[in-house]
Design brief:
Elements: H1 2-34, H2 38-46, H3 55-66, H4 71-74, H5 83-95, H6 102-110, H7 118-127, H8 133-139, H9 145-158, H10 160-170, H11 176-189, H12 195-200, H13 207-217, H14 223-228, H15 235-248, H16 251-258, H17 266-280, E1 286-287, E2 293-294
Antiparallel strand pairs: 1-2
């Protein structure tokens, strides 16, 4: 028993020594890197692949503190074969808004052999440079759902910088997946320059996404198009059209929208009543699932 206790005590002492030594080493490397020592900076970046004792987390934080000075040491490792190191490097470059990293990140994003490359799409959005738009738009054609999703989010983050390239993509007969992603991005950006191209896609393969996007634009030029799909066979399209008319419609569209108060789908009836109130200033009741006529609750409260 005594021998076992002594062994346990020795193990605890060894672990304690290991836990206190690493921060000192990292602090020394960080101090040397701050002083401009390239070798120390490269050593720090090399430790991003070291998961033990959360070394990579501590190194990552130190590199962000170093700011732009860390970028030259990070750039060569964008395509590191060590996945953990690569992802920390890409994340750091994104948070440091390293415009110089855009070409390397674009290559990584386009490399089908690279795992979890959607992180590169995220980083390009964080960098926020106009030079990031083209590779992100190209990524909308990718078969990887995660790549498309993160590329779409980054394009939305780039906002007005992405509008014209997205419009151009829609004029080039993109794949259905790319078209749907571009339409969703244009809807969330909500730039009025997108109205015409979205109207042209109203009866295409991405019509449900187009109706949603038109609603987000809140532009009076979309009224006729939204009215035209109020009785679409797909209930989600009817709902989105009714929802979209609320902010832009007027008394002139009230009569045709009122016909949806008796739609077969409850949520369509509810949004119809809500939008009619927004358009006319009058309260409307709709038939709920229990068959009772009630007024919709105000979602803006």
């Amino acid at each position: 028993m005594v021998r076992r206790l002594l062994s346990l005590l020795l193990l605890l002492l060894l672990v304690g020594c290991q836990q206190t030594s690493k921060p000192i080493v990292l602090d020394e490397l960080a101090a040397a890197a701050r002083a401009g020592e390239a070798q120390a900076l490269n050593q720090l970046v090399g430790l991003l692949g070291e998961a033990g004792e959360r070394t990579n987390d501590r190194v990552y934080a130190l590199l962000l503190e170093l700011g732009e000075d860390a970028i030259p040491a990070l750039l060569p490792l964008v395509k590191s074969q060590d996945r953990i190191q690569r992802e920390y490097v890409i994340a750091a470059l994104g948070n440091l808004k390293a415009v110089a990293a855009v070409p390397a990140l674009a290559e990584t994003l386009a490399d089908d052999q690279m795992g979890r490359r959607y992180i590169a799409a995220w980083a390009l959005g964080e960098i926020g440079s106009e030079s990031a738009v083209k590779p992100l738009v190209g990524a909308l054609e990718n078969q990887d759902e995660e790549v498309r999703k993160y590329a779409t989010r980054s394009l939305i983050k780039l906002n007005r910088l992405a509008v014209l390239p997205l419009i151009e993509l829609l004029t080039l007969n993109p794949t259905p997946l790319a078209e749907a992603a571009a339409v969703r991005a244009l809807g969330d950006i909500a730039d009025p320059r997108a109205v015409e191209i979205l109207l042209q896609r109203l009866n295409g393969a991405s019509r449900a996404d187009v109706v949603t996007a038109l609603g987000k634009l809140k532009d009076s030029r979309t009224i006729d198009a939204l009215v035209s799909v109020l009785h679409d066979p797909v209930w989600q399209i009817r709902m989105n059209a009714a929802m979209a008319l609320g902010p832009v419609g007027t008394d002139k569209q009230a009569a045709v929208l009122e016909t949806l108060l008796e739609d077969e789908v409850n949520v369509v009836r509810e949004w119809t009543a809500r939008s009619l109130e927004m358009m006319t200033g009058r309260r409307y009741a709709y038939r709920n699932e229990a068959g009772e006529y009630v007024q919709p609750y105000n979602i803006y409260h």
